[in-house]
Design brief:
Strand content: 25-35%
Protein name: YhfM-like domain-containing protein
Organism: Cytobacillus oceanisediminis
Number of helices: 3
Pfam families: YhfM
Radius of gyration: 19 Å
InterPro entries: YhfM-like_dom
Keywords: Signal
CATH architecture: Sandwich
CATH class: Mainly Beta
Order of helices and strands: HEEHEEEEEH
């Protein structure tokens, strides 16, 4: 009986430890997104929301951006990278403020990099999400 309890305790402890080590991902507000605006970036810390060159209002495109953003996994350390290629403004329905995100769009089969404009943490997408983002952003 002691061996059973010890084994059960060890399995439970392992499950708790590994469960707490899940990857941290980016988050968006729990509100409906009405539009995604993409613009050429002017640098870190701000967003070029005055000169968006692409705007997505259709649910399918918005869903791709939402999935790419919310599945991007935080990397350890802070950013030490060049000027971002794009700025993304996530616009919500109603009077809510928008989310400003920098994007370094990867090449095909590479990961892309996201960063909140107010933070230096880096989040990586999957290569599959990069392909989807490239098809939206570069098709316009």
């Amino acid at each position: 009986m002691k061996a059973f309890l010890l084994c059960t305790f060890m399995v439970f402890s392992f499950a708790m430890i590994t469960g707490c080590q899940s990857a941290e991902t980016m988050v968006l507000l729990d509100e409906e997104v009405r539009e995604i605006k993409v613009s050429k970036s002017e640098g870190l810390g701000g967003i070029n929301d005055e000169e968006s060159f692409i705007s997505f209002k259709d649910r399918k495109s918005i869903a791709v951006f939402e999935k790419a953003i919310t599945s991007a996994v935080k990397q350890s350390g802070n950013a030490d990278i060049s000027k971002p290629k794009y700025d993304i403004a996530v616009e919500y329905k109603g009077e809510l403020p928008s989310h400003g995100i920098h994007l370094w769009l990867g090449e095909d089969n590479e990961k892309s990099v996201f960063m909140y404009i107010t933070d230096e943490s880096v989040y990586l997408t999957s290569p599959e999400m990069t392909i989807k983002l490239r098809s939206l952003i570069l098709s316009k």
